[in-house]
From TrEMBL, chains A, B:
Family affiliation: Belongs to the threonine synthase family.
UniProt gene name: thrC
Record pathway: Amino-acid biosynthesis; L-threonine biosynthesis; L-threonine from L-aspartate: step 5/5
UniProt EC number: 4.2.3.1
Record-linked SUPFAM superfamilies: Tryptophan synthase beta subunit-like PLP-dependent enzymes
Pfam family, one: PALP
Source organism: Cohnella terricola
This protein's name: Threonine synthase
Amino acid sequence: MKIVCYECGKEQKDGNFVYRCSCGGLLEVIHDFTGLDAEKLKRLFAQRLSERMSVYASGVWSYKELIHPELAESDIVTKYEGNTGLYRSEQIRSALGIRELWLKAQSENPSGSFKDNGMTVAISHGRALGFERFTCTSTGNTSSSLAMYAALAEKEAIALVPRKQISLNKVLQTLAYGAKVIGFDGTYDDGIRFYERYGRELGVYICNSINPFRIEGQKSIVYEMAQSLNWELPDWIVIPGGALSNVTALGKGLQDMLELGFIRRMPKVAVVQAEGASPFHMMMSQGKRNLEPVERPSTIASAMNIGNPPSWSKARDFLSRTGGETCSVTDEEIMEAKALVDRSGIGCEPASAATVAGVWKLIAEKKIGAEESVACILTGNLLKDTDVLREYLLKDGRAQMLAADLTVESLERLIRGS
Amino acid sequence: MKIVCYECGKEQKDGNFVYRCSCGGLLEVIHDFTGLDAEKLKRLFAQRLSERMSVYASGVWSYKELIHPELAESDIVTKYEGNTGLYRSEQIRSALGIRELWLKAQSENPSGSFKDNGMTVAISHGRALGFERFTCTSTGNTSSSLAMYAALAEKEAIALVPRKQISLNKVLQTLAYGAKVIGFDGTYDDGIRFYERYGRELGVYICNSINPFRIEGQKSIVYEMAQSLNWELPDWIVIPGGALSNVTALGKGLQDMLELGFIRRMPKVAVVQAEGASPFHMMMSQGKRNLEPVERPSTIASAMNIGNPPSWSKARDFLSRTGGETCSVTDEEIMEAKALVDRSGIGCEPASAATVAGVWKLIAEKKIGAEESVACILTGNLLKDTDVLREYLLKDGRAQMLAADLTVESLERLIRGS
């Protein structure tokens, strides 16, 4: 296993942990898969499905050989993350008019978001290196995941959180797990820039997705999906695009599986951004090579409210190489799709629903065919952002709490009324 | 499988679904376990641990033979509930000063509470009977679970919710899943009384714990715990006491396992109530046979804010037979225990933390010995009640969002400061 610069290829020392190469490039973990046998590994992974009380009961560490083979089991900090539901919903499928639809609910992770898949690896790696203080900049999901794992490891967690356009629930969750939460005037992007420059000086272990071990852990989402589908993935996998670590990890995980012979063909990947925070979609749709950050990103989907996504070049390369697509959707479209996902009984936070809104759009644009099969990755739990429900459902009058006396007449009227 | 009155033993017809016997007693499902072989079943249950995409991937339906053997698989409405983490926490164990401590996190269920274990069975049973409208009275957790499963089954959900002392998040979750939410002036107990009398007239399928199929599903919590611990349970299992369906189900599940030879000895069970809503503890500690309802129950732990628990006689009998204990804890003790559970990285809602507060008290009262082993059942997710976090953490100044400029100096001060 090596840590190399994604841009210039220079190898970095693991003990001397940095997050950017001296050339400015992001780092990447490169595994040596020589000698690994796909059929043997598949059998091993199948056996581990019945684990419940060891580290291999985790939906991340069950694929340890492909994620961090060298880490000692005793360094692993796990909450049996992953193992999330892969659902079909006839309601959503038929509303979208697509042949086959899957929803992979990373929202069911222990802290309620897909961040847990990567965070368990970052915290475990940082602990093995001897760090005591773990930190991140976050719109909320990363910080609550960080705080949860740091608490499990009995380490200190510090979350840098923009003061605006974040979900209060996520901040409360972060505080409850015992993290120090530091608000600042600025955006997620400002926080990331700051840590990239000064994180080392501060002596903290940074758990944002610029940390390549986060990416290694997040690969497990698509491993798990593939394993559940007997190693035959749908035509498309659709994910929301915020910091773009998701598409980076998805791409890397797919690449691993193709290389090792777990899967025979590469599915296409679509990245959906919110219109008010869509620098990646703008770059890709205009055929540009470089990302122009959005200065003041703004969307109701707080988890995607990122104007300068760190992992854009990795994401660009992967989509270009594999025929992927991007699109952007409005806040209104996101909330409509969210209502559909919630009412299907699956439920998610706004950013996750962007995937369903995106499928709608990509079908209309004839980029996804109605005869194809699609899997959307739901990244965050419905309970993560109830402020948005309060605004959207209650204040906008889309739903309401009815009132009745406890009499048969009064209830009958409300029950039979539409 | 028979449905009989718990009080007078009269058998009821399943198709003609009622919730109370004509004598006023609660109903109970009685299985005929003749011919079941414990060792064979253990092997079957072990095999099913590796299921991911069938109904047997559920942590409830994986024990179908002991829960509802007759139900057709095609009637099952599941979201792979159960399969929750069974954790150790050295922080909590040492704070309590007990030899061994386990925490069973039903908070990790798909709707975020232990209600899912029973609800999947109730909704599946009601669907098999042909019902279109499903309802409950709820302080919030039952209603969101009901709404989620009804949405999955494409059926209508109606939640009767007291207007006071409930968690807004849970109401929003219920609304988001598409349920009709009807507020009324009164308590949970008023709602239950109403449905017991008029539910049938209204033609709705009632999913409260007076429904014996809820209890059957909830038995799976202790099956799963036992299976994870290789069929050797701790000395004590501690649960919060609200409607008391939890202790009823726990008792029934333990009884099943002892009868079938899955376990060799019966662990003791302790029920913890909140001081402001502790009619069951009062009855038990005063050695009375009958429950005196608390007229105006009041506790910060909204999930336990119940003054007239329906399942009290089943709970009484089980505890009396097996040497169980009860105790009550103050809201302050609950919130202290919650801080401990949250800061351990596991996290829960207030009612769940009452179990940890209860262990503390029962050790002090020498009812639980420090050399014994204990498992606490955490019933609800940390995100279920963020209002209480807002009040307790932010307004009370126990935690705060710090503020800093993005400079090394400013952050260093906050990071190194205690």
